[in-house]
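Workshop exercise sheet. Pairs work together: one partner reads the sequence aloud, the other fills in the structure field after running the prediction. Swap roles for the next sheet.
Pair: D.N. / O.F.
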Amino acid sequence: MIRDTFLKIMIGLACGLTVTACSSDYMDVSSTEDVDASSIFTTTDGGMMAINGIHRLMHESSASWYAQGGYQLFMLTTDLMADDVVFTKSNACLTWSAQLTMHQTPSNRDNKYYYEFFYRIIANANKIIAEIDQADGEAAMRQYIKGQALAYRAFAYFNLVQMYGKRYVNGQDNTQPGVILRTDDSHENKPRATVEEVYKQVNQDLDEAIRLLSECGVERANKSHINQAVAMGLKTRVLLTQGKWNEAADMADQCITASGATLDDNTYVTTDYRMSSANSSEWIWAKISQADQEGTLKQYHAFNSNSNASYNRNTPRCIYNKLYDRISNTDTRKGVWFPKAQDKSVKPAPVYPANGNLFNYMSNKFLLPVGSDQKAAGDVPYMRLPEIILIKAEALARAGKNEEAAQALYPLAHSRDKAYQLSTRQGEALIDEIMTQRRVELWAEGFRWFDLKRLNQDLDRGPAPRTELGYSADGWKSGKVAKNVDPEASNYNMYDTKAIGEENRYRKAGTNFWQWLFPESEINVNPLCQQNPLYTHAEENQ
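Structure field:
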């Protein structure tokens, strides 16, 4: 059972993102422990305060441990569990994600944190949905508030069911256990709903959210808020994950139109807050950063940018070299990674923190001004136009509509690579091209692990160095140019501490690895919650 300690409406930092939505007087209010919930929802102003609390919760900095900073750190955590974002050196944070143990350890603090994080969003949304219809104020504002709460509830359940349930398979009954489904403020023990039941609720919530947000006519204050385009984008993700190709393509089309977003050829060329500003015409939904509200080492840029935050200074993120090799030399995205970063004679060189480590294939995708301190933070994309374009192209290709898929892909691919020509590939070859574009474009934005799961594909981090042929087993040491590196090896375990471990190069599709274990705090208090089976390496040989 989700206990009262986090079944609260968190509004203490409600003004953090939208100073136009509430006054500073609200900053004294911490939760419904302190203020009667019924008084909060007396007016739509109170309802907006509660919605702003969820916006702020998405990038909270109040957690007790580093790297626990809401959804922005969840994005990087799950990408480190996959193949395209490479972990370079052991440290106190995120190592166990890259080693594939965090989600398989019920006592792990990050496992517990993310489980509770999403259910806190759900609890907050449930209260808003239940109360807002009775609030005084304009009907349009009630619709706007309720639509956002419904979208947030769907967003949270969509993430949870992908984490803890087996993958959804279109055409099957999907009665496998999902997660505990709560749509009210009840606290009693409940068993896990089926995956099908959870997706039904997610789709129902999103459909109603899209209707309310489309009809209300309220313009959002900024991109941290959810509008109809964001709700459509979430629905597009859900339909893709369910394998409903035609519906996903249609919804993607609606999202693109509703968003008003446009592609920007300068996205990967600029060094001015590269991929770190919600002002980008490509961004649909985002974290809006405020420096005075960012916790030290609890926000995205401390772990994946050129800031001086110690974790990224010591352990820069790198791109999987086998993916990098697939990027065209005329593609502007190829310039945001540096395969020879440790050779200082090679120009251009990466922008990196003072006294920071240099590792080959390191990233400059997310840039802040040079010399940014530990608390410096940029905006973080939750949803961008390129993702929706890529969903449309993938869905059309998987539906067998090759020419339409190629046409859908072309604007994005040509924006990134002016030498790109309209694809003439068919079938699996076209799908592979689209998926490569998706991996490159959405690198470190939180999609890769979930893509592998939804597509029932193996996690394969590439071949180890061929030491039997005399190649070095060590790879690159910090500050040193490696010699005798196997050109056929992947860059996993090629860095200082070999943090990932050889046993974690591969995970077979369909094994228990792909389901997170429920935190022991949930199992201990709710005997009706059936624990997932623990993954064992023996499954790889079955």
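Discussion prompt: The longest strand covers residues 283-287. What would you look at next?
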